[in-house]
Amino acid sequence: MRTFRLTLAACAVALAAPALTAKPVDQVRVGFSTSISGPFAALGAEARDGFNLGIKQLGGKLGGIPVEVFATDEAGNPDTGRQHAERYIKRDRVHFYTGPIGSNVALAVGPALFAAQVFYLSNNAGPSQLAGSQCNRFFFGTAWQNDAYHEAAGKFAAERGFKRVAVLAPNYPAGQDAINGFKRGFGKPVIAETFTKLGQLDYAAELANVRADAPDALYIFLPGGMGINFIKQFVGAGLSKSTQIVGPGFSADEDVIRAVGEPMLGLFNTAHWNHDFANPASQAFVQAFTKEYGRLPSIYAAQAYDVVMMMDAAVRDTKGELDDKDAVRAALKKASFKSVRGDFRFGPNQFPIQDYYLRTIGKDAQGRITNRTMNKVLTAHQDTYAGQCPMK
Amino acid sequence: MTSTLVFEQLLNGLQFGLMLFLIAAGLTLVFGIMDVLNLAHGSLYMVGAYLAATLVAATGSFLAGVVLAVLATGIIGILLEVLLVRRLYKRDHLSQVLATFAVILIADDLVRIIWGPAPIMLAAPAALAGPVELLPGFFYPAYRLLIIAVGLALAIGLYLLVARTRTGMLVRAGSSDREMAAIMGVRVDRLFAVIFVLGAMLAAVAGALLGPLLAVEVGMGENVLILALVVIVIGGIGSIRGAFVGAVLVGVVDTAGRAFLPGLLGTFLNTAAAAQLGPALAAIAIYVVMAAVLFFRPQGLFPARA
User: Fold this and answer.
1) Do the chains contact at B259 and A208, CB–CB below 8 Å?
2) ipTM, 2 decimals?
3) B237 Cβ under 8 Å from any chain A Cβ
C-alpha cells in the first residue's frame, strides 16, 4: 500500500512537472512534410532547397540547440499528408511542423497537429479557413494568406488604368478565390470571367474568345503546367501585342520562367518578395542559394528559408524551453527574425501584415530572364479574413 | 458571335483533334492488333517531349532535334517491347494494366531523376512563333498550322500504309483475326514489334510537336492518355479510321463546348447560373459523346473486328 501511494505521488509530480518548470530541450525536432513529387513537385523541391540551406547555414542547430529534421514526401496528397503528420506527432514527437505546398494538405493536417499542440508554420499554404473562423493558436501563416497576391494584382490593374479587364482561372476552390481576390482589389466589374477545367492542356478556344473580347489586360491564375501551357499559347496566338497579362507571383516565378523562356518577357505579377530585394538578409540568402544550387531562388525557396529562421529565433528567445507552449507562441508571434521580405508583423489571426510588390519579367544585367521588382502595391496589408478570427 | 470566331474555333478543334489522333493512333493499333492495353503509351509521349527539348537545345535545330527524338523514342519502344510487352501478350488485361502502369511510375521517376522535377523549356522555332494572317483580319498561330499539317500528313500516310501496303494488309489481318493470321503464316511476333515501335514513334512525334504548346513536365503523359482512351473508345478499338474520326470529334466537341456553351447558356439562363453551369458542362461534353457512342454503338464508330 505504501509503495502504491509513493508511486502515485511520483506520478503526480512527474505529470505536474512540465507545467511548473519547463526545461530546455536537448534536441529540436521538426517535421518537414515536403511535396517533392505529385502536382507541386517543382515547388516542393524549391522549398526543400531553401529549407536545407537555412538548416545548413545555422550549422544544424536552431537557437543553438541541435535540430533533427524528419522529412517525408506527402506528394501533395492530403491523406498521405495526414498519415505523415500522425507519425511526426506520435513517433517523432516533433515541436514544429512545416512543408506542405497545397492548401488542401494544410487543411487536412491541421486538426491533428493543433490537438497535439504542435506548432504548424506554413511556408506556403494560407487558406482562408485558417485565417478566418478556423484560425488556431498553433497555426502561423508565415508567407501570406492565399488571396493577398490576387488582391495586390487587382489593385495594380486598377491603378495602371486598365479599363477592359478579363479574368481566367481553373474551376476549383482556389481558382474561384483567386478571381474573387482580384475583383476585390480591382474594385470594378470585369468584362469576361472564364473558368476552365482543372489541368486543361489546350487553351485555343479561350484564346479565340480573348481575341474577340480584346481586353486591355487579362488576369490569369493558372498554377503549374496550366500556366506554362497558357502563356506559350497566348504568345503564339500573337495576343501579347494587344493584351497585357497580369498574374499572381505563382504564375510567373523562376520555375515557370525556366520552362517558358522568352514569351514571359513583360509579364506583370505580384509577390511579397523577389530575389532583387536590397535588405541584407535577402541579399545574403540569394547569394548563398545561388552559390549552393546554381540558380536564382523562387518565392517558395525564400518562404521555407524564412520558416527556418523563424523557428531559430523562437527557440533562442524561449531559451529552448519548447514545452512551454504559450512562451513559444509569444516568441513566434513577435516575428523577431530577419525575414528576407523585410520587416513585417503578425496580425491577431497569426497571418502576416506586410507589403506586396509589383514585379515584371525582363532581362537582367547578365542577360538572364527573370523578375524585377517595380514598386510597392499594397502597404501593411492585412487579409480580409482576420476579422472572422476569434483570437485576440 | 462572328463567323470568323466560329471558323477559328473549328480550326482549333481540328488542331486539338489531330494532336489527339497522333497519340490515339499508336494506342489503338497496339490495343486492337496485339490486344495489349499499353498504359505506358503516355510515358512514350512524355519521353518524346523531353528528348526533343534536350536534343533541340543540343543541336540548335528544331527539325533535327524532333527527328532524333522520334528515332530515340523508337529505340526505347523496341527495348520496352522486347523486355516487357512481349511477355504480356498471353496474359490477361489485368496483368497488362499492372505491368504498364508500373512503367508509368518508373518512367515518371526516371524523368524526374534525369531532368529534375521542374518543367523544362522547348520553344517553337522562331519562324513559327507568331501568328499568320490567313484571311484579312483573321490571325492564326503559325505553329498550330504546322501541327495541323503534320497531323493530316501522318493521318494520310497511316491510311496509305494500312490500306495499300503489304504490311498494312498484315496489320488488317492481324487486327480482324489474330489467330487466323498466325495460322496463315504471318510472323505475328515481328509484326507486333513493328507496330509497337510505330506507335511509340507516333507518340513521340506528338510529344515533340506539342512541347512548344504545352508544358514539358513529369506526368504530362497521364493527362493525354485519358483523352486518347476516350478517342479509341469512340472510334472503335484497332481502327485507324476510327481513331481519326474519334479524335477530330473529341477535339471539335471539346473546343466548341468550351468556346460557346457558357455564352449559349447565358441566353436562356441568368448570368450567375450560366457561369456556374457552362464550364462544368463543357468539361463533361466529350464524356457525354462517349457515353452516347457506347450506348448506340458499343463497338465504336468504326470497329476493326467485324
Assistant:
1) yes
2) 0.80
3) no
Query: Is B134 inside any structural domain?
Result: no
C-alpha to C-alpha distance for B269 and A386, rounded to whole angstroms? 36
Would you call B16 and A202 a contact, using CB atoms and an 8 Å cutoff?
yes
**Which residue, A268, A79, A60, is CA-closest to A158?**
A268
The grid cell for A203 is: 487553351
Question: Using CA atoms, how far apart are residues A168 and B279, in angstroms rounded to an integer?
Answer: 12
Is residue B138 domain-resident? no
The answer to whether the CB atoms of B216 and A259 lie below 8 A apart is yes
Q: Which of B121, B146, B210, B248 to mutate to test the interface with A (most CBs of A within 10 A)?
A: B121
Rounded Cα gap, residues A180 and A178, in angstroms: 5
Which residue of A45, A195, A255 is in closest CB contact with B279? A195
Q: Are A107 and A136 in contact (CB under 8 A)?
A: no
Sign of CA dihedral B58, B62, B64, B70: positive
Tell me if B259 and A205 make a contact (CB, 8 A cut-off): yes
Nearest CA in chain A to B120: A259
Task: Report the chain A residue with the minimal C-alpha distance to residue B271.
Answer: A193
B140 within a domain of the structure (yes/no): no
pLDDT tens, A84-126? 999 999 999 999 999 999 888 999 999 999 999 999 999 999 9
Q: Does B135 fall in a domain?
A: no
Q: Which residue range is the domain that position B180 belongs to?
A: 3-123+145-296
pLDDT band at residue B302 under the 50/70/90 scheme: confident
Q: Please state the domain count of chain B.
A: 1
Show the domains of chain A with their CATH numbers. 23-144+277-343 (3.40.50.2300), 148-271+357-381 (3.40.50.2300)
Grid cell digits, residue A379? 502597404
